[in-house]
Amino acid sequence: MSPLLYYALPALGSYVMLSFFFLRRPRLLHTPWVPAFRPRLGAHRGGSGERLENTMEAMENAMAQRADLLELDCQLTRDGVVVVSHDKNLFRQTGVNRDVDSLNFEDLPLLKEELEVYFSPGRFAQGADRHMVRLEDLFRRFPRTPMSVEVKERNEELIHKIAGLVRHYDRNEITLWASEKSSIMKKCKAANPEMPTSFTLSRGFWMLLFYYLGLLPFISIPEKFFICFLPTIINRTYFPFSRSRLNQLAAVVAKWLIMRKSLIQHLQQRGVQVVFWCLNEESDFEVAFNLGATGVITDYPTALRCYLDSRGPPALAS
């Protein structure tokens, strides 16, 4: 045996054992985050499978099912109003080919009478309420309900207005910053660092890489939420790519990478809550909670509430 291997192999063996030990016992190295809330039932766009998405009626319906989290996206109108809308362009939702920021709030068109549920293709939602709603109206109507606010564009005025509304209504601990892009999340955290954050796509990639390299137990995690799609919905209700074979490959790879109980248990022990989206079938609810997820985000809050009630109360976190 060469001198290099003589020293390298025992060192590598010791590293593997230490990594495995602290992966299962992270509290020996890190003080876990103390959650301000634990979302088991999250309503995607307010529950866009049961009412028209992001309307006050949808939010009311979700709250009637005892939702723990309202998930929504925000845009900014021409007159500076923070409005709840997934899309910047209004055509899909209203039939009017205008951007939100090209209109004043009072001039925003009504939503269509029915909208297709994005994560349940071929199914449509209807509702009596077709009006778009201001973020401030939701804060007033549901003052202590946790909300996840996603910012999709690098719009500093929008980010600062959201941060200001959160401060004004004393919602720092129960309003979550969400964004796919780290550049946007950086600006969000600067605008209001007291709000909890979720993993961005790149941060999620690095977290998975550290997990497989055995480094995750030794790395600090500033995020309090890991909100991730459940890999089993790819190529069934979620089609990230235009080609079927790419979706099939993504489903296999993502399932192998993400659906690891040891990873989810490690995050949970460190106070990072794991929430899977956007699940609309009971079989997917079952998969998510059996993996150890804190909660699920769905378009159908009534279905998830029925499932949770039949499952019983959650086990207490150790």
TrEMBL record:
This protein's source sits in the domain of life called Eukaryota
Main localisation: membrane
**Transmembrane regions:** 6-23, 204-221
Q: Which family does it belong to?
A: Belongs to the glycerophosphoryl diester phosphodiesterase family.
Which UniProt key words apply to this protein? Hydrolase, Lipid metabolism, Membrane, Transmembrane, Transmembrane helix
- The keyword Aminoacyl-tRNA synthetase is annotated on this UniProt entry: no
Q: What is this protein called?
A: GP-PDE domain-containing protein
